Amino acid sequence: MSVDTATRPDVTTEPAATPWRLYDVTVARVERLSPTFLRVTFVGDDLDDFASGGLDQRIKLVLPAAEGGYRHLPRGEDWYGVWRSQPDEHRCVLRTYTVRSVRRGIPGLPAEVDVDFALHGETGPAARWALAARPGDQVVVMGPNGRHGGPYGGIEFTPGAGADTFLVVGDETAVPAVSAILEHLATRVADGHPVTGEVLLEVPCADDVLDLVVPPGVTLTWVVRDGAPHGERLVPLVRAASARILAGCAGTGEEPPEVDIDGELLWEVPVDDAGSPLAPTAPLYAWLAGEASVIRTLRRHLVRDCGIDRKAVAFMGYWRLGRAEM
Question: Does the pLDDT of residue 108 top 60, yes or no?
Fold first, then answer.
């Protein structure tokens, strides 16, 4: 479980520090959690500066280029523009993952960061790297820089302090994020702030069902795909769960803007330009992430059919079936 907060009061901030930075890390351990899930634990001399806020904190895994490894990896403030202009053979591959947990401050032990890989469907460059990873392997990750002082960005679960009813939905790619979200909700309950809600997670097979922390008042349902198309078994269960939470969906909502999921990223989160949660009017907060076509279907149901305020729902197409990361 993560021991971090969104800021690092124990790290000296620097006025010129950027919100995110590159970390040179080493693989410490590789653990197969299930047929689909593989956990890689990273260590690094400067991970004490790593400022994960928990929840669904995103990072970038930076894979070595086909030619030269990391020799051509830009490290200045304008790294992204330089990276985009590089020839393909020199450009490192970037893939987005969720921080599962962070451990630091344990006497005699280095700071560690866990990343859980969902090895689903077609094997991309990050999955191939993870399958081949061994202790001692070196890689680069881009993540929040504690010396900046925050906010860092990369967290979309932002319900606001008043939310106490939740609908959380994801497929295997969202399981690491949802695992951390559940731990956060359990901490809220332990601190005297009760919550209610439903969490539904779709995974490829029964052996992928993991032992997660589930706070009192929250129901966790595992939906085993078992060869069925993505979302075929999940969508009806989400419809039923939303009806229970909302006591019915009357079809009084608006039609959400159409998103071409084959040409653009489905990523709609209820925050303002500064990244602060917008004030919702709905009776719950919903967070949904997974295969883009499934999330689009659920987005239409919740916003149009159930009338949920769009300021109370985060929709994220983590990936698109048959396509590389956009």
Answer: yes
Mean pLDDT score, 137-166: 90
213: confidence class by pLDDT, cuts 50, 70, 90: very high
Which option is the CATH number for 20-144: 3.20.20.80, 3.40.50.10490, 2.40.30.10, 3.40.50.1980?
Answer: 2.40.30.10
pLDDT tens sequence across 151-161: 888 999 988 77
CA torsion 1→106→39→154, rounded to 10°? Answer: 60
Per residue, the 3-state secondary structure of the chain, as one string, reads CCCCCCCCCCCCCCCCCCCEEEEEEEEEEEEECCCCEEEEEEECCCHHHECCCCCCCEEEEEECECCCECCCCCCCCCHHHHHHHCCCCCCCEEEEEEEEEEECCCCCCCCEEEEEEECCCCCCHHHHHHHHCCCCCEEEEEEEECCCCCCCCCCCCCCCCCCCEEEEEECHHHHHHHHHHHHHHHHHHHCCCCCEEEEEEEECCHHHCCCCCCCCCEEEEEEECCCCCCCCCHHHHHHHHHHHHHCCCCCCCCCCCCCCCCCCCCEECCECCCCCECCCCCCCEEEEEEEHHHHHHHHHHHHHHCCCCHHHEEEEEEECCCCCCC
pLDDT computed for residue 187 by the predictor = 95
Q: What is the pTM of this model?
A: 0.89
Residue 253 has pLDDT above 70, yes or no: no
CATH no., domain 165-319 = 3.40.50.80
Intra-chain end-to-end CA distance of the chain, in Å: 30
Domain coordinates in residue numbering, the chain:
20-144, 165-319
Higher pLDDT, 263 or 27: 27
